Amino acid sequence: MTTTTPPPLRAQVLALRRTQSARAVAQALNIPLGTVKAISSRAGITRDNTTLRAFFRLPEIVASACTALQPPVAPPQPVAVTGNKDLDAVLWLRQVVQTGDGALIDKAMQAAERIKTPAKELEKRYGEFLMRESGGNTMRAVFGSMGFADLKGLAERTLDKQARKREALARFGSEQAVFAENVQERFCVDALALVPVVTKGWREYDPAQANAAFAQHQDMAPHTLADCLHELEFWDALYHLRNGWDNAGDDLPEVSARRHYIEAHCLASIRPKTRDEAKAVLRFMAAHEMFDRNETVAVLESLVG
Asked: What residues form DSSP beta bridges with 198?
């Protein structure tokens, strides 16, 4: 004769199983270990959440007819700006580099080698020029001259932004689509629709209330630490692509709240299935400089406990 597990007990098992071993849950609820394993297995709670993984995914790269990335045009011929030959040459070369054209950048880097004035001296002279032009604005002089002669660094940043733009357009089709609210962001907004907004000069949400709201959406709850990393990597990738454009802005407050739910709550409560999974979390935390956060101790205790 088959017995049916009462729904309240099943819910208790699933809630506890997310953070505790099957044996610990069996002891806590005073039920057979086999019952805990059967409930967990049928619910798929110890397996990756395939629904979450399919949802938090960037569009595939496709051949696009988008023309948002027009062939760059070389800037005008050099003009005297500062009255100093080398400074004007660097200003011109910076314009060339900022076109994003690989061939022009290569030529600019070759031309830069013919400038014999040391980079520090060029930055000093340019700072003095900015100071005169601004009527003594020290901040403008200091920040405006910082890295002025670092054409290599400027080239690397420019090419990186171009690469981000190309990938973003290949995935989304247009710049407008890149920055349009997507379904993942809409999910976060809808999930927090009833949570009061806390305003401290910017919009944010009470972490406890936001966590509780996200936890109500069990279809989008991570089952494993690998699920957590999958979603966090999605948000990182989206932010990375959007920042191929200047002034791309930050994540929505609702997205920040979702990230906090994953990073502070889920990583601290879901036990690792394997040593490799625990190591992956540690690598993620190191790469994102997370070891000085308030939730770090709880996450580490969960990984080693």
From this structure: 204
User: In angstroms, rounded to a whole number, what is the distance separating the alpha carbons of residues 262 and 285?
Assistant: 13
- Residue found under tokens 């349009």: 180
Note down pLDDT in tens along the chain; length 305 residues. 455 677 778 778 777 766 666 677 787 888 887 787 777 666 666 689 999 999 999 999 987 556 566 666 667 677 889 989 999 999 999 999 998 888 899 999 999 999 999 999 999 999 999 999 889 899 999 999 999 999 999 999 999 999 999 999 999 999 999 999 999 999 999 999 999 998 777 789 999 999 999 999 989 999 999 999 999 999 999 999 999 999 888 999 999 999 999 999 999 989 898 999 999 999 999 999 999 998 899 999 989 87
**Length of the chain in residues, anyone?**
305
What is the pTM for the complete model shown? 0.80
Q: How far apart are CA 169 and CA 241, in angstroms?
A: 9
Spatial separation of the C-alpha atoms in residues 273 and 264, rounded to whole Å:
19
Mention every residue, 6+ apart, whose C-beta is less than 8 A from residue 44. Answer: 223
- Helical spans, DSSP H, in the chain: 7-17, 22-29, 33-43, 50-55, 85-97, 102-112, 119-133, 138-145, 151-172, 175-179, 183-191, 207-215, 225-242, 253-260, 267-269, 275-287, 296-304
CA–CA gap between residue 221 and residue 61 (Å, rounded): 27
